[in-house]
Amino acid sequence: MANPWLALDTGADPAERIRQIGRAHERFVGGDKAANSIRPVVAASWERSAVALPSADSTAPIELGDSELEAYRAAHPLARVMPIFRDLLGGLAEDGEHLMAVCDAYGRLLWVEGSASVLRGAERMNFVPGARWDEAHAGTNAPGTALAVDHPLQIFATEHFSRQVQRWTCAAAPIHDPATGGLLGAIDVTGGDHLANPHSLALVRATALAAEAYLRGHVITRTTAGTVSALGRNEALLSFGGRRWRLGRRHSELLVLLLARPEGSTGEELGFELYGDEVNPVTVRAELSRLRRTLGPELMESRPYRLRAELEADFSGVLGLLNAKNVKEALRQYAGPLLPGSEAPGVVRLRRLVDGRLRSAVLNSRDTEVLRGWLNSAWGSDDLAVWEAYAKLSPLNPQARARIRELSLEYGLATFSQRPRN
């Protein structure tokens, strides 16, 4: 019996099979649901796709913008196994013909890597980081369907439900959390018709198993959790194993940067995040060496530099609450800007990310309590846009009107009541 997860039987003519499936696809989207010549796993996926999507010309939506994506994937468990993915599949991603992609359990692409020319082709169908490629949003495709059926498989050319994806062939395998058995996401290789062979499916399956084995060992050997407080303070406070450290400015910056990159960083990468273009490799190595001596090998390792322990950072907690749409609690836990006195490029970028996401969520909340919480803070009291949003919800509040007039004069702007309305 033929393997149902492989796209082509041995000896099959790929060109003829593309035409045969293509004709069946056009009949299917035209209303003839009897897809007799199609693999059962594909036929079932077409059924699900037809229910979820308006047409076979639908495009996968972008769900995570650049700032959201950076924070989300930094905290994702699969970030820790990216070195394994790159080691086992990186050669394919660099050969000019293939892409390597990693998605989360919702089908949102977190990493898409390959040569510039192949990446440009993928961009035309929104196969980019941040796009959602589960079946409900992109139709039949290898990573999305692998998540749906929880099994490694190939999707060959015209087997894709969306017409714009039908020039590609892909193989993907789901990845599970060893502790819970739940889905973490999927690993995918995308390229031309030549991928429709047993070797590509075996390769992605082996890669997924290697990642799960690493995570299983990592969970077993991980040390007890600790906490890091870095919001609203220039010196981070680390609590771990019954001990507390108040770190100096530079070590606080390094700790925050390591927390943002759980998969690990090289000394060169950390140096650029710390000093920008003025990086001095000797200085960076010395700082990292001193930090490792301070924390000890149970907390920090090198090659690459990364934290061994499960540390709960306050800024990551705020981002997690925002991802969960819990704006009120995120605001309550926000103690102020991340390491506000730091000018390290990586810290500045992360600080702007946290502040920007929180402020945007507050503005969009349409909750007077949330808006008032922001306005009562030291960092939000002069925020004219939030005052205006608050005034729209509390039009009879004289304090809001007075504060808007005051800030408008201070900023040299027309007052709220003088501005033209759409």
Chain-averaged pLDDT:
88
Task: Characterize the overall form.
Answer: globular
SSE-based structural type: alpha+beta
- Distance, first to last CA: 66 Å
Strand content: 5-15%
Q: What would CATH call the homologous superfamily of the largest domain?
A: GAF domain
Helix count, DSSP H or I runs of 4 or more residues: 17
Share of helix among residues?
40-55%
What CATH architecture label of the largest domain applies?
2-Layer Sandwich
CATH topology name of the largest domain: Beta-Lactamase
Gyration radius, in Å: 25 Å
Strand order of the largest sheet: 2-1-5-4-3
**SSE string, helices as H and strands as E:** HHHHEEHHHEEEHEEEHHHEEEHHHHHH
CATH class of the largest domain: Alpha Beta
Number of domains: 3
**Number of beta-strand segments:** 11
Largest β sheet strand count, sense and barrel closure: 5 strands, antiparallel
Low-confidence stretches: 220-224
Polypeptide structure, described:
- This is GAF domain-containing protein.
- The protein is an alpha+beta fold and 422 residues long.
- It folds into 3 domains: 14-221, Beta-Lactamase; 226-313, Winged helix-like DNA-binding domain superfamily/Winged helix DNA-binding domain (Arc Repressor Mutant, subunit A, Orthogonal Bundle); 366-422, no CATH class.
- The protein is 48% helix and 12% strand.
- The protein contains 17 helices and 11 strands.
- It has helices spanning 14-29, 40-52, 66-75, 82-93, 116-123, 135-138, 142-149, 198-221, 249-260, 267-275, 281-295, 314-323, 327-333, 345-365, 368-375, 384-393, 398-411, and strands at 99-104, 109-114, 153-156, 169-176, 183-191, 226-229, 237-240, 243-246, 300-301, 306-307, 311-313.
- Strands 2-1-5-4-3 form a 5-stranded antiparallel beta sheet, sandwiched between helices.
- α14 packs antiparallel against α15 and α16 packs antiparallel against α17.
- It starts with 13 loop residues before the first helix and ends in an 11-residue tail after the last helix.
- The relative contact order is 0.09.
